[in-house]
Write a structure and sequence with these properties.
Layout lengths: L2 H4 L21 H27 L1 H12 L3 H15 L2 H5 L3 H11 L6 H9 L8 H17 L3 H5 L1
Helix pairs in contact: 3-4, 3-8, 4-8, 6-7
């Protein structure tokens, strides 16, 4: 045997590449990961639905607020929202300045003096100007969206 025979290019063969490793069927860990992903997704969807349903009254109140055209109507709307999120015995007994103070203490939004006056005077006060009504409507919107729910206020 000649040394040139061993290194001859005629003796070369193509490289044999092994078949790619299959991704299917997956191993047990992939089944576990898939099940955990489904479980977490199901819990997240459930919690979102509970949250969405529990805040339906807020969305309805904001829609109704857009149609309210007087301080009295806005005050009544705030009262109904407060009754839906707090105990009836507490909210129904509040009148005048106590009612307004209760509202102001439930959110971190400062209550403008014009809003305080409009809510206290209610039916008996002079008609609100468009600017005053706009300020009242904005405060009511903030209050509706930010007040604590019954679970949060009891804690």
């Amino acid at each position: 045997m000649n040394i040139t025979d061993l290194t001859s290019l005629d003796r070369l063969h193509d490289i044999v590449v092994p078949d790619p490793i299959s991704w299917w069927p997956p191993t047990l860990i992939w089944y576990v990961i898939a099940m955990l992903t489904l479980l977490v997704s199901a819990v997240a969807i459930y919690r979102f639905r509970v949250y969405w349903r529990s805040n339906a009254y807020r969305r309805a109140a904001v829609r109704e607020l857009a149609e309210a055209n007087s301080a009295l109507a806005i005050g009544q709307l705030l009262r109904r929202v407060a009754l839906s999120c707090s105990s009836r015995t507490t909210v129904a007994a509040l009148r005048g300045a106590e009612w307004v103070d209760w509202l102001a203490n439930r959110v971190d939004v400062p209550m403008p003096e014009s809003v305080r006056e409009q809510l206290i005077e209610g039916v008996y006060g002079r008609p609100s100007s468009a600017d005053q009504l706009s300020v009242l409507r904005q405060y009511a919107s903030d209050w509706i969206q930010r007040h604590p729910s019954s679970n949060e206020s009891e804690a």
